[in-house]
Amino acid sequence: VQLQASGGGLVQSGGSLRLSCTASERIGGSYPVTWFRQAPGEEREYVGTAWRTTGKTYYADSVKGRFTISRDNAKITTYLQMDSLKSEDTAVYYCAVGPVILSALRERGSYYYWGQGTLVTVSS
Question: Would you say 35 and 57 are in contact if contact means Cβ atoms under 8 Å apart?
């Protein structure tokens, strides 16, 4: 299984971008898809998760109300819609998949598969 993250780019503060995470094959339906990000000089941090089976979503407080995770019905592509972007959202964004449980969503070690990352730069 490979994950391909795409859609990054340069955007002005207040603008929007949509990132995509596509799996090379259908991943087990019960696995959630999570987005992380890593700013220069910082540790990778949790952004949000979409559960494939229930459609439930969870978000970090820093992006709640601005970012939305959704997936296509074939469960192959997951999207991260980012609105009202701020300069502090500048980072490389990664998608990850694995048999993670709810209490461990933020733990990078819970995930088996990772995309290669896509860079988002927000100019002020």
Answer: no
Closest CA to 51 of 63, 42, 59: 59
Alpha carbon distance 84, 79 (integer Å): 16
Q: CA torsion angle for 55, 84, 108, 76 (degrees, to 10)?
A: 40
What is the three-class DSSP state of 106? Answer: coil
The owner of tokens 């192959």 is 76
User: pLDDT for 55-112, tens place per residue?
Assistant: 899 999 999 999 999 988 676 889 999 999 999 999 999 999 988 888 999 999 999 9
Let me know if 17 is exposed, middle or buried by CB neighbors in 10 A (0-12, 13-18, 19+): buried
pLDDT confidence of residue 75: 66
Beta bridge partners of 51: none
